[in-house]
Amino acid sequence: MRAIIFDLDGTLIDSAIPFKEMKSTVIKYLQTVGVTPGLLNNDMLNSQITSIAVEDLRKKAVSQEEIRGIFSRVSDIMNRVELESLPRASLIEAVPETLKALKDMGLKLGIMTRGCHEYAEKILNRFGLSKFFDVVVARDDVENPKPDPEHAFHLLGILGVRAEEALCVGDHWSDGECAKKAGLKFVLVKRHDHNVTSPEESDFLTVNSIADLVQFCRGGT
Q1: Segments making up each domain of the chain, as ranges
Q2: Which of 40, 54, 196, 204 has the most CB atoms at less than 10 Å from its CB?
Q3: Measuring CA to CA, how many Å separate 212 from each of 3, 187, 217, 218?
Q4: The domain 3-16+89-220 is classified under which CATH number: 3.40.1490.10, 3.40.50.150, 3.40.50.1000, 3.40.1050.10?
Q5: Structure pTM?
Q6: 8 A C-beta contact, residue 159 and residue 125
Q7: What digits encode the pLDDT tens for the residues 108-121?
């Protein structure tokens, strides 16, 4: 193993982002620009909201240029909510010690997040974590963020490692979906505050704490 790719919110950081409120704001905006009312809901992932809204707008003959403009505005909404949440976020237990131990093992570390790049950089700096990471690839750094495997492929390219040489770590089944599509091994970090089970059969490893990664990686190197 040469590299580990981490999710950010829920894996390294206890995010204070009000995700449901953010989704509601985005959905209301999309309805004002022509997306069929009732088509979208707060239980959907952001990636699902995007793909369904784009398909609906295309069916209504909205141009690709107009759609790009609409989702540029959606990105602005999400960025604002994420950045406003920064002061309320907290660090998950054992994260700095774990990252240091992994770096001391000679592993390359990367961040793959659906947050915006500015949010990711600021929150990593706030908790003194930036020094551990070789690269951060955020939602606005790729055309198709996770669970699309493009996000992982882009990050792997920057790290200069093959998928079979890397491990992906996250707290949600969508992280595992991205990893599977990209050919990455996946470790799910269990969270006590929400259900992380996959809607499909999965063969990934689960750990109770991010600190468990150190022993896992020592055994796998």
Answers
A1: 3-16+89-220, 19-86
A2: 40
A3: 16, 10, 9, 10
A4: 3.40.50.1000
A5: 0.90
A6: no
A7: 999 999 999 999 99
